[in-house]
Design brief:
Helix content: 25-40%
Largest sheet: 8 strands, parallel, barrel
Distance between the termini: 142 Å
Shape: globular
C-alpha cells in the first residue's frame, strides 16, 4: 500500500481525535496542599534549651537540633550590654533564620530579654532606657519570627510593690507602642525573690498581666524560681497546691512556657541558682511529676497546645547541655519520641572550656590586684592623715 501524499509532497498524517476535556477543568484550581501546623502546635510535648547566638543566629538553631530539642530559647543580642537603637537584625539574616527554623520544625521559639532591663525602676533615666531596650527586643523578636519574648519584671528599689507593678505595666505599654507585634506574645517571668525583685509572688505576676489585658501577654514560670520563692513543687501535695495557686493567680492557660531548672538552693532560699535537672534540691522524682502532669501537658482537655519546657541549666563540662535535654525527655517518659541528638555534641567544647577557665583566672587576678591597690591606697591615706594630726 502506497502512502498518500498531499499536494505539497509531504505525507499526510492520520487525524487524531482530541481527548474529551471538561471545560471547567481549564479554570478549576489545584487543591491547596495540606498545611502543617505551626512548629510546636501539633500537640506533642516541646522540650528545648537556651542555645547560644555567639557564632550566629543560624548556629543557635543547629545547636538545638544537635542537642535533641524540638524547641529553643535564645537571646536576640548580648544580654548584659545596652545595645542602643542600632541593634537591628538585617532582614537577609532574619529571613534565613526563619526559613531554616521552618525546615527544622523547631518551635516554639522563645527569646529572653536583656538582663539589664528594669521595667519596675523608679529612676526615670533607667526606666526610659529599659523601655527603649525592651522596645528593641520586641522589634528583633518579631524579625526573627519568635513566638514568645520573656522578660523579668525588674526590681522595685524603694518603691512599694503596688507602685512597682503600676510602673511595670506602664513600661510594657510604652515599649510596645508603635511595635507591630505580629504573632509575638510577651511573657512575664516569676522571680526567686532576691532583694527587691518583683514577681516572686504569683499574685504579683497575675496583677501585672491583669494590667496588660489588652496586650498579647502571658507568664513564663521558672521551676527554680518557684522553689526558691517558697513554692513546694518538690512534694506531690506541694505541687498540687502550687498548681492551684498558679491557676488562681494567673491561669494555667496563660503559661505557655516553663523554664525547667533544678535549684542549688533549698525551698524558700530566695536566691536564683540553677542546677542540672535531677541534681538539685528539687530532684528527678519531682521533675517527673511536673513533666508528666496533665495540667502541665500539651494535650486537651487539661493541657495547653504548644507549651514548652525550656532548660536554662549550667554547662560546667562539655555535654552537660545534651545530658540535661535528654534527662527532660526521659523524665517526661517520652525518651522514644525525642529527636535524635548528635553524639558527642555540646555548645561547650573543650577548647571553649579552657578559654573560659583562663578568662576566669585572669579576671580573678585582676580583681585581686584591684583590691590590693585599693587597700594600699586606703592605708596610705590613713597614714597621711595620722602624720598631719601629729604635725
Amino acid at each position: 500500500m502506497t502512502e498518500q501524499k498531499s499536494s505539497t509532497g509531504v505525507p499526510e498524517q492520520p487525524i487524531i481525535q482530541p481527548t474529551q476535556v471538561d471545560p471547567e477543568d481549564e479554570y478549576r484550581p489545584e487543591p491547596e496542599p495540606e498545611q502543617l501546623p505551626p512548629s510546636g502546635m501539633d500537640g506533642s510535648l516541646r522540650i528545648g534549651i537556651h542555645t547560644s547566638i555567639a557564632k550566629s543566629y543560624l548556629d543557635a538553631l543547629e545547636s538545638a537540633r544537635k542537642l535533641g530539642c524540638n524547641a529553643l530559647q535564645i537571646f536576640s543580642a548580648s544580654p548584659r550590654m545596652w545595645q542602643g537603637g542600632s541593634a537591628r537584625i538585617p532582614e537577609v539574616d532574619a529571613q534565613a533564620f526563619r526559613a531554616r527554623r521552618d525546615e527544622l520544625r523547631l518551635g516554639p521559639l522563645v527569646i529572653h530579654a536583656n538582663y539589664l532591663i528594669n521595667l519596675a525602676s523608679g529612676q526615670r533615666m533607667l526606666q526610659t532606657r529599659s523601655i527603649q531596650a525592651f522596645h528593641d527586643e520586641i522589634v528583633r523578636a518579631v524579625a526573627l519570627g519568635a513566638d514568645f519574648l520573656v522578660v523579668h519584671p525588674g526590681a522595685r528599689g524603694e518603691s512599694s510593690s503596688q507602685q512597682a507593678i503600676s510602673t511595670i505595666v506602664e513600661s510594657v505599654k510604652q515599649a510596645s507602642k508603635r511595635a507591630p507585634m505580629g504573632g509575638l506574645r510577651i511573657l512575664i517571668e516569676n522571680t526567686a525573690g532576691m532583694g527587691t525583685a518583683v514577681g516572686a509572688r504569683l499574685e504579683e505576676v497575675g496583677e501585672i498581666l491583669a494590667g496588660l489585658r489588652n496586650l498579647p501577654v502571658g507568664a513564663c514560670l521558672d521551676t527554680a524560681h518557684l522553689f526558691a520563692a517558697g513554692y513546694d513543687i518538690k512534694s506531690e501535695g506541694g505541687l498540687a497546691s502550687t498548681i492551684g495557686q498558679i491557676d488562681g493567680a494567673i491561669g494555667l492557660e496563660n503559661v505557655p512556657v516553663i523554664h525547667a531548672n533544678d535549684s542549688k538552693v533549698p525551698l524558700g532560699g530566695r536566691v536564683d541558682r540553677h542546677e542540672h535537672i535531677g541534681k538539685g534540691k528539687i530532684g528527678a522524682e519531682a521533675f517527673a511529676r511536673i513533666l508528666q502532669h496533665p495540667r502541665f501537658g500539651t494535650t486537651a482537655p487539661e493541657g495547653l497546645t504548644g507549651r514548652a519546657f525550656v532548660a536554662e541549666t549550667p554547662i560546667d563540662d562539655p555535654g552537660d547541655d545534651r545530658r540535661n535535654v535528654a534527662m527532660l525527655w526521659e523524665l517526661a517518659a517520652l525518651k522514644q519520641q525525642a529527636p535524635e541528638a548528635e553524639k558527642g555534641f555540646s555548645m561547650l567544647t573543650a577548647a571553649l572550656q579552657k578559654k573560659i577557665a583562663l578568662h576566669k583566672k585572669t579576671e580573678k587576678k585582676r580583681m585581686a590586684n584591684a583590691e590590693k591597690k585599693s587597700r594600699a591606697k586606703k592605708s596610705g591615706a590613713r597614714k597621711s592623715k595620722t602624720k598631719k594630726k601629729r604635725g
